Amino acid sequence: MRRAILTALLCLAPLAASAGRYTRPAPFSPAHAGVTTRVFHPKELRDWRGGKPQLNVTVWYPAPESVAETPQWIGPPGAPLLSKGSAAPNAPMIPGLRKLPLLVLSHGTGGSADQMAWLGTVLARAGFIVAAVDHPGNNGNEPYTAQGFVLWWERATDLSDVITGMLADEEIGPRIDRDRIGAAGFSIGGYTVMELAGARTDVSVLYDECKEHTDLAWCHVPEMKAFGPPPVMLETARKTSRVSLARSGESFADDRIHAVFAISPAIEEVLTPESLKDIRMPIDVVVGNADPIAPARYNGDYLRSKVRGLHETVLPGGVAHYTFLDTCTTLGREKLGVYCADEPGVDRDAVHMKVAEMAVAFFKRELDVR
Fold this sequence. Notes:
- One of its GO terms (biological process) is lipid catabolic process.
- GO terms for molecular function: 1-alkyl-2-acetylglycerophosphocholine esterase activity.
- Residues 1-19 form the signal peptide.
- Pfam families: PAF-AH_p_II.
- Keywords: Hydrolase, Lipid degradation, Lipid metabolism, Signal.
- The protein is of the alpha/beta class.
- The chain has one domain (26-366): Alpha/Beta hydrolase fold, catalytic domain (Rossmann fold).
- It is 33% helix and 19% strand.
- The protein is built from 12 helices and 11 strands.
- The chain has helices spanning 2-21, 117-125, 146-150, 155-168, 188-197, 204-212, 230-240, 242-246, 273-277, 300-306, 330-336, 348-366; strands spanning 32-40, 55-63, 70-74, 82-89, 100-106, 129-133, 176-186, 260-263, 283-288, 311-315, 327-328.
- Strands 1, 2, 3, 4, 5, 6, 7, 8, 9, 10 and 11 form an 11-stranded mixed beta sheet that branches.
- It starts with a helix and ends with a helix.
């Protein structure tokens, strides 16, 4: 009985703290999803990992219901490969003086901001401003670079710079509630948002494991094959990115962020146990029970064992890693192979909606959005 009471109190504690930190806004009306883009040029000296010195950002936001959404696609005109759901390009933001919470999204390695559309559009309809970045050197819209794949800790600086850019944006910035900012990420994007929560990296963990256990899935991610196995990529980075490597173990925490949602997070064992134990932030993790790229036992379970209060959900029924990418068209399934292949009985759209609704509930609760 005492244990049950203690558990209940621990569950209520974050809500009590949240209620004390924020002023509760008025109820939010239903909305459609608007979508637009931004390009940010951070002034601070930073490592671009061989990519363009700019941050390309996709922004979803609540638009009036009177504005029609239209289907959005990834791929050549007339021959789309993946669906980005529906949204209203460059629609006006929902009117009113109310400030809205901001969420920043981090895609998986070799992916893109657009691959987070299934999540961003749902969050926008729920009243969030959502900004997803193309990580330089590590996104599918630009040429890949070895540094883009190997200097993963630098991804956190991308999201911090996106927050700064969004807050300074003349059109969108005034509508953002600076006290209600969260982050979500998929795959290595899950690692990225854990960095923002305060986790620190020990790069030797992954590279040592890939030397000893060459059969580990993460050591042979399809997007990375052009650069060789991780130990080879590390040597490349040592020749070109000594400054970045030297700071890989530093903290990239951003105290503007108050809640984190990680989807099928990858390479979590590189995060030091000491830094994870120090995290005091609401964190939800969602993983699939059939993920060969980022198995829960080495990632979600690892985080749950180290981070106080972290909640982990394991989705059953054969949900795998790439189930969390945008839904493929028939042509996409023909062309993109493993990225579109789900286990029999797995409905990718249904999984997306379930996880997106979980994210909406999590951020509304932890950022005290009504």
